[in-house]
Amino acid sequence: MLYFFYFVLLLIYNETKGHNQRPIGLQEVFKWKQIEYDFDGVLYNSSTDDISAKKQENVTDADKFFIQYNNVPIGMEVYGDRVFITIPRRRHGIPSTLNYVKKSCDDSPALKPYPDTKSRSKFISVYRPRVDVCGRLWMVDTGHLEVPGERKQIQPPAIVVYDLRTDKQLFRYELKSTDLVNERSSAGLTSITIEVDKKSCNNAYAYINDLATEGMIVFSLKDMDSWRLDHRSFVHDERAMNFTAAGYVINWKDGLFSITLTDPDVNGKRKAFYHPLVSTQEFAINTELLKDKTKFLGHNTYIGERGNNTQSGSHDYHVPSRTIFYANVAQDAILCWNIDTEMTPDNVAIVAQDHKKLAYISDLKVIGDEIYVLVNQIPKFIYSRFDTEEYNYLIHRYRVFDLILGTVCDRAAP
């Protein structure tokens, strides 16, 4: 009887997976047609000129406080009942880059600046923040205004960390000039990954990608020091260019995009898995080698090929199932791979796919036994135009074990 029940579940899973429908366990967390803000009870739900500019006859976009259409969410993180959502300043009219909402809010809540409204102007541009096991929110403020034709460095790029129990800033560390290649580097600092043990919170390491000038920056909290690593595996693969994402051909040359860590092995060592966005290959290295740049140089990190059209952005590791999940932007999908298997196309599976609801997953995060994804269709924003009467920005939640059931990632499968 138990075997028959499992067989029926497997048939249902395969049927839904093959027809581009919702996999078992999907929940819509939030959805927005356009972004709104709540500044201490004042609701901004339509474009607004800056008060100081209203007296001028010729008001430019740079003068405008809020241009609703330009506010595109890029990153997210979850902590308790709060969901953090970032809006990098890639256009004018973005009043707050680091924001949050409560899970108990309605389907399309207005964003609130974090930690408070008065702090919204201290950050320039934040992409994908991360929470560590010590209850701290880590982020990189690129300090870079990325408006096309008007790019400028407003302030030095910096690592900023908050204590989420008090919502107080713990420290701000400005990156060194030797961490950057040129004026393009700061805009490429779009994710941060934290390695730390809960028993020694002051001995944390942060690994920051640089997709623009294709490198990695490592930061030691204990030493309050940072250094840059350059390696061939951080560089985009020309053979993987010109893929389709959210219905548009992508010719970006984005290098190192995402870094995820395993749990410690018996010797207390972790492995970092990483990849460029424009690549179908995966790489891995013991993090002890990232902490010593003299050991890292020349090391072979290639572990295998994910397969055709597997260009992926963010990825994250689920400890209990020993599975890495990928935001597969080239197929509007989520991929899985169990790290106990060889990295080959046969061992990589599509566990969710939807050409509308998963059209460009901008961020993906494993929280407990669930996966959160932020979908923003940003190729449409860049190459075309959103229909503001449709839901353009989505946050979904999936149950890990529902997704991998019956796939090559399910090591419990017969």
From TrEMBL:
Primary localization class, coarse: secreted
Single GO cellular component term: extracellular region
Keywords carried by this UniProt record: Secreted, Signal
Subcellular location per the Swiss-Prot or TrEMBL entry: Secreted
Signal peptide range: 1-18
Record has Hydrolase as a keyword: no
Alphabetized InterPro entries for the sequence: 6-blade_b-propeller_TolB-like (IPR011042), MRJP/yellow-related (IPR017996)
Family: Belongs to the major royal jelly protein family.
Name the UniProt record assigns to this protein: Protein yellow-like
Organism: Papilio xuthus (Asian swallowtail butterfly)
Classification lineage: Eukaryota, Metazoa, Ecdysozoa, Arthropoda, Hexapoda
Gene label: LOC106126017
